[in-house]
């Protein structure tokens, strides 16, 4: 196969002569000077060729074809560093080649197209696209038609576009309508739109496989259709964490070349019913309150989260809860190992082996017929109880423009685990420090009131009687109540490391800093606070407080490849300057 596709000849680009070689995996062209010495080589992996067209082709301002019979044009992925973001921006590169004869031109286009088919088996031919016209800054339609559609057309992708008229339309369509002939589903919107696709596709796949989604112990069937995300929302966390930038052109190019990134999904259950699926943030306390508050201010657009975040921070709340968790194998990885899950991540690759090649033996995460989660290999559940500022579970880093390294910077996209972050009640300045560290590279887990655990499952319940209590006096959660009630913090040195203990029968102490800070901020807030918060599940408020969650390894696949390591990518051009270069 490799030798069949090989082609080598002299070609011209403008008035310069090049030696072009197609090896099967790569298409290279090297400038040759008058003395036949090689100069600079441009090398494009065949998998990153977007399209090959006869003639001299442009696509902006409109598609134009000068149909000369000795020329062909190759479109391909070109990388740029992206300033603020961690990942790389992808743009459409274009080179027009001239051949000495028409026969050679036809040979080049035929070979390149065959190589494309051979080396990019997952390239979509037909896509189902849902646009949320109201997501983010309400630019979904414009982004799709001006930026994405021309690229899909160039790549020969046909798409069926649905502009949604109501919430959950995309989900319902995926659950009920005929999906035959589609290779993938794309949303143009934010995390909420992605969540609709996630629910629709997972639900449809389980229906067709005859599996019950309600039972947390059932091993769910991975979805056959890929999901593409064109970011046009408010947080765009799933896009940022799987691509590394929020950029519609970059995302469209990942879709076109058929990149494939598996993703862990957390199922959330209550009383033996499925409540929701989550991939990014499942958060109780602070993040739940921020979402509940922000729904009242949707008109503010993406800014609603900053406004609500500030208001909720000032209200200075903490909540009682009991958290049970099932730790993952600490030998595989740790949330404190300071590694990052990047494109081609070895921890995720090892998990693929474990999840799909050993699933028939007793080493699987759960035994599929075991509704009480008691397989021998699952390990021991751990229980902690106390007052928390927030309890968060995330299946991936959940990086987003607000927090470029995310809620858990060392979490993995596809390792079959999630990171459980427990932020115990603490003084307002301590909590602010924790929040603020999300905006920099400082370790947000290196604080005495924060714990992080890599887990396979989590249960959350309320201390008996809490659900009925409703509201409690704010003073009670901040200054009036004694330290014993509040579960305030204490750091002790155990085995040489700082460990945090709260409400575990150990002595408790309030620091001076805590005592000083609390009353000042309490003066700014309301006098009544609810005793119970809500769960924020990828931007949706859950109806239940007591939940049971399980991580399903690699349940869905996105058209993405994870964040590319800048240091390992060679063909990256200088920083992209939007002012002087057009998109195409
Ligand atoms: C002091 C600065 C603090 C910055 C803290 C940033 C933490 C950000 C972590 C964000 C994790 C995001 C996980 C993704 C969630 C989304 O699924 C979900 C839905 O997104 P969609 O609307 O696009 O559909 N988004 C959300 O739920 C939004 C959560 C955002 C929380 C941001 C909170 C901002 C807090 C600002 C606090 C300021 C305190 C200042 C005190 C003087
Ligand atoms: N046509 C529509 N009208 C109202 N709501 C919609 C529509 N289409 C989608 N939605 C809902 O809007 C919510 C937010 O959408 P999303 O695209 O995530 O934007 P944002 O990031 O700004 O929240 C989603 O939960 C989705 O279900
Ligand atoms: Ca994970």
Automatic annotation (TrEMBL):
GO cellular component, one term: membrane
GO biological process: ceramide metabolic process
Any one GO molecular-function label of the UniProt entry: ceramide kinase activity
Pfam assignment, any one: CERK_C
SMART domains according to UniProt: DAGKc
Origin: domain of life: Eukaryota
Ranges for domain DAGKc: 122-272
Protein name as catalogued: Zgc:158263
């Amino acid at each position: 196969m490799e030798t069949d596709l090989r082609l080598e000849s002299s070609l011209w680009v403008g008035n310069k002569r090049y030696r072009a070689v197609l090896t099967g995996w790569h298409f290279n062209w090297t400038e040759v000077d008058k003395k036949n010495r090689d100069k600079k080589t441009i090398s494009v992996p065949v998998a990153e060729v977007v399209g090959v067209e006869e003639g001299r082709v442009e696509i902006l301002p409109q598609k134009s074809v000068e149909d000369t019979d000795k020329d062909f044009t190759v479109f391909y992925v070109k990388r740029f560093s992206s300033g603020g973001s961690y990942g790389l921006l992808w743009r459409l590169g274009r080179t027009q080649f001239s051949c000495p004869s028409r026969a050679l031109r036809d040979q080049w286009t035929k070979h390149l197209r065959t190589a494309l088919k051979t080396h990019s088996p997952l390239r979509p031919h037909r896509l189902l696209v849902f646009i949320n016209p109201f997501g983010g800054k309400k630019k979904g339609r414009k982004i799709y038609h001006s930026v994405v559609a021309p690229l899909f057309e160039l790549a020969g992708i046909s798409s069926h576009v649905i502009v949604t008229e109501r919430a959950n339309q995309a989900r319902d369509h995926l659950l009920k309508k005929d999906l035959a002939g589609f290779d993938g589903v794309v949303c143009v919107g934010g995390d909420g739109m992605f969540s609709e696709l996630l629910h629709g596709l997972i639900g449809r796949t389980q229906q067709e496989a005859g599996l019950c989604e309600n039972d947390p112990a059932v091993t769910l069937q991975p979805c056959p259709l890929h999901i593409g995300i064109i970011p046009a929302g408010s947080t765009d966390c799933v896009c940022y964490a799987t691509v590394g930038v929020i950029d519609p052109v970059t995302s469209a190019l990942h879709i076109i070349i058929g990149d494939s990134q598996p993703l862990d999904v957390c199922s959330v259950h209550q009383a033996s019913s499925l409540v929701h699926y989550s991939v990014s943030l499942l958060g109780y306390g602070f993040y739940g309150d921020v979402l509940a508050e922000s729904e009242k201010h949707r008109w503010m657009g993406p800014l609603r989260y900053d406004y609500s975040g500030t208001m909720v921070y000032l209200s200075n709340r903490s909540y009682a809860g009991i958290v049970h968790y099932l730790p993952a194998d600490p030998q595989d990885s740790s949330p404190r190992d300071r590694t990052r899950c990047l494109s081609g991540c070895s921890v995720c690759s090892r998990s693929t082996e474990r999840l799909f090649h050993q699933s028939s033996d007793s080493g699987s995460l759960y035994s599929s017929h075991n509704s009480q989660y008691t397989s021998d290999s699952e390990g021991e559940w751990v229980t902690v109880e106390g007052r928390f500022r927030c309890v968060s579970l995330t299946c991936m880093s959940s990086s987003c423009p607000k927090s470029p390294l995310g809620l858990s910077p060392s979490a993995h996209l596809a390792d079959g685990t999630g990171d459980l972050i427990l932020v115990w009640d603490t003084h307002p300045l301590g909590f602010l420090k924790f929040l603020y560290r999300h905006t920099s590279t400082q370790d947000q887990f290196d604080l005495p009131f924060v714990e992080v655990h890599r887990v396979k499952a989590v249960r959350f319940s309320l201390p008996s009687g809490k659900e009925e209590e409703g509201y409690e006096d704010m003073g009670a959660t901040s200054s009036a109540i004694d330290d014993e009630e509040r579960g305030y913090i204490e750091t002790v040195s155990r085995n040489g490391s700082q460990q945090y203990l709260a409400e575990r029968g150990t002595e408790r102490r309030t620091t001076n800093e805590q005592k000083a800070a609390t009353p000042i901020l309490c003066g700014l807030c309301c006098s009544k606070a609810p005793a119970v918060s809500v769960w924020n599940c990828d931007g949706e408020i859950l109806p239940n407080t007591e939940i049971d969650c399980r991580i399903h390894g690699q349940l869905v696949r996105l058209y993405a490849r994870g964040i590319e390591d800048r240091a390992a990518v060679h063909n990256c051009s200088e920083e992209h300057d939007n002012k002087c270069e057009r998109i195409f």
